[in-house]
Amino acid sequence: MFGTGLLMLPPMAIEDRHPSFLTALFTSTSAISVTGLAVVDTPHYWSTAGLVVITVLTQLGGLGILTGAALVILTVSRRLGLQNRLLVQAETLEYGLGNIRRLLLHIGATVLACEALMTVVVTGRLWMAYDYSLGGALWSAGFHSIQAFNNSGFSLYPDGLLAFSRDPWITLPLAFGSVVGGVGFPALFEAVRQWRRPARWAVATKLTIWGSVVLVAVGTVAFLAIEWSNRGTIGQYAAADKLLAAFSQIALARTGGIEVVPPGAIREESYPLLIWLMFIGGGSASTAGGIKVSTFFLLAFVIWAEIRGEPDVTVGRRRVATASQRQALTVALLSVAIVAASASLLIAITNHLPVQTALFEITSAFSTTGLTVGVTAKLGDAGHLLLIVLMYVGRIGPLTLGSAIALNTRRRLYRYAEEQPIVG
Amino acid sequence: MFGTGLLMLPPMAIEDRHPSFLTALFTSTSAISVTGLAVVDTPHYWSTAGLVVITVLTQLGGLGILTGAALVILTVSRRLGLQNRLLVQAETLEYGLGNIRRLLLHIGATVLACEALMTVVVTGRLWMAYDYSLGGALWSAGFHSIQAFNNSGFSLYPDGLLAFSRDPWITLPLAFGSVVGGVGFPALFEAVRQWRRPARWAVATKLTIWGSVVLVAVGTVAFLAIEWSNRGTIGQYAAADKLLAAFSQIALARTGGIEVVPPGAIREESYPLLIWLMFIGGGSASTAGGIKVSTFFLLAFVIWAEIRGEPDVTVGRRRVATASQRQALTVALLSVAIVAASASLLIAITNHLPVQTALFEITSAFSTTGLTVGVTAKLGDAGHLLLIVLMYVGRIGPLTLGSAIALNTRRRLYRYAEEQPIVG
Ligand SMILES: [K+]
Ligand SMILES: [K+]
């Protein structure tokens, strides 16, 4: 809200541009929710002061999510009497104020360290290999590092990172930050602490880490196969450059929303792929949105157990509680319903936007991905309001819902007789 | 297979039409799976002999499904040690050969009685109020009654029942048969036997009966609201006729696939409505397809329980077994995956069919509904093969999967430690 007011001030936009309330609201919502959808051409609309505000909002939004979600998970775990190895050292099971402060400092320091590392590498490359002054390189590198790590999709260039799509010194550091931020700290801390013994990771960590690896790998291969000969995207690149561009597009755009290839030029076969990846999103308590990697793969394990006739759902020698299965089901199906209803509404509002385009933009906003096929600016005020609501719902919805569900467990003094209806 | 050969014989088509193998295969698959999708203009392509073959295939297909599914449910129930009040009188819990023969005879007699009743009413109306000979009226009434009861979508008229859309004497008997056949016998027998005490119905019966009522009511109201002023469909009708046409369209087309209003003229807002209704389909062990009404509403109850924080999922004072919840989840999510993948494939095959159209035709085939927006004939050989596969999969898939899942329960001699990952 404060960001909206700030962005409406005259110095925030270039010369004769006067941001309307809705434009400022959309942009600040997009920044604070680390989505990155834009209704205006970011670099040609906002002044440097405006871009700094966007950067600060993004960083605050990202830190708020990372720390807030970590606290929510800690609280829920404590209330459920669960030992949360993901966030707190196994030996310090007391969740005292000191521990919480240490956790938040740990998160903040990791964020700054990652962003600094990314900025240094990208600044060096821009300064040495391109026609940038040191200051210009630092500004661009810092801006995009913060955007990438926080999985937000604003860019200083109208076509995203297209100009650097074949430069691994630019795309790989940003992709690294995007993946790290998109995995989230609960899984990341445990994976780093126990990197020698991945078999001992908690179920949520295993699902998130291996799931993210699978999604990026499958996404890269599928994108490569679909776009291989598309001259509008990677068709004219050498084979190694195609691989680099496809990998960084998937790593950066899947959850972050920074484009590496022109999104308006991708083949229609890439739409369902990207919609599916955006809908799944990143890790729990990460800067990425969506229903979460762990939710998706947990459901896959449920189905697999069901097909094999296993009485329990097991992930790496651990049995998954029925409560978690029901939570995953609820989050996934409610999200499907929200996306489907919103897409239908957007189609009605916009007088017949193509279905795949509507699904793309809606999923992008709901999963706070910020990827677009280039129609965001044309959706009209009602369409923009819908996207604003979806960005808020998508940002705070799934975790709030999940934790509310986990906490709000009623105890029954009696149980009804059981029945086993046959379905299908 | 036999039907395919039969339909390729010269006397089956009109004069100079020579059905290709694929056309015959598609039509016989469509008839035996009681779908009703057509690649040719049925009345202007097949001779009377061909139409009789289609009728016989439809009736055999419908009876096969009704009896086969009833036997599967009986077998599964017995293997699970469940008492199946749905199919067998509560007092006769022995599933001897005599009981099974009695059950099959009961089903067959009910089918014939319903179809005869429908045929009599429609014949009388066609003979008296329209320009039909008695023989012509009987043929048309019998054909459409068998199609409607078996929830198959072939018609003797190129535009379905459009000419009768304002005649309750025609549409209501057919809608009645379609709904009865689409509810299925397990639920129907129990509902009829215990009609005074609906609170005592089994969970599956409650979900199927009340769920069907809700779906038809919601579908009718939504269709009425969307199409109210659409001059291509019901816009020019009087209010009462609008209601009649909307109700019979939903009752007949939701699972049966017989059109009452021109399907090519419906508004785009009706697409998601009809796709959603087709995907859900009808009752278990009915002539309708889809993931089944009970599957859909069971998942709704799971989500509702989850949101309210109830430890158990209860439906009308009965606790639903976790195994049933997992089965419903598996059937629903695998079906979503099949439809999404098939729609993407169809779009690729047909060189960019609009997404909503592809989803419509794929869902129609997979749910064996047979409703079309008029493009079935134009999908090409590869598209037709895809639809043929989907009709088979959709017909035998969900129940086979569900019962295989229910039967294939492994016993474990040990269990792993439980974990409760937090999702969302
Ligand atoms: K984003
Ligand atoms: K049908």
Q: What is the topological layout?
A:
The structure is a homodimer of 424-residue chains.
Chain A: H1 2-8, H2 21-32, H3 42-45, H4 48-79, H5 97-129, H6 134-149, H7 168-183, H8 185-193, H9 203-227, H10 239-253, H11 270-280, H12 293-308, E1 319-320, H13 322-349, H14 355-366, H15 380-407, E2 418-419
Helix pairs in contact in A: 1-2, 2-4, 2-15, 4-5, 4-15, 5-6, 5-7, 6-7, 7-10, 8-9, 9-10, 9-11, 9-12, 11-14, 12-13, 13-14, 13-15, 14-15
Bound molecules: potassium ion (2 copies).
Keywords, separated by commas or semicolons:
mainly alpha; homodimer; cell membrane (chains A, B); globular
Q: Can you offer a commentary on this structure?
A:
Chains A, B: One of its GO terms (molecular function) is monoatomic cation transmembrane transporter activity. Chains A, B: It is found in: Cell membrane. Chains A, B: Keywords: Cell membrane, Ion transport, Membrane, Transmembrane, Transmembrane helix, Transport. Chains A, B: It is a multi-pass membrane protein. 2 copies of one chain form a homodimer. By secondary structure, chain A is mainly α. Chain A has one domain. Chain A is 62% helix and 1% strand. In chain A, helix 5 runs antiparallel to helix 7, helix 7 packs parallel to helix 10 and helix 14 crosses helix 15. The N and C termini of chain A lie far apart (48 Å). About 1% of the residues of chain A have low confidence. Chains A and B meet through helix 4, helix 9, helix 12, strand 1 and helix 13 of A and helix 4, helix 9, helix 12, strand 2 and helix 13 of B. Bound molecules: potassium ion (2 copies). The site of one potassium ion has 11 residues of chain B, from loops.
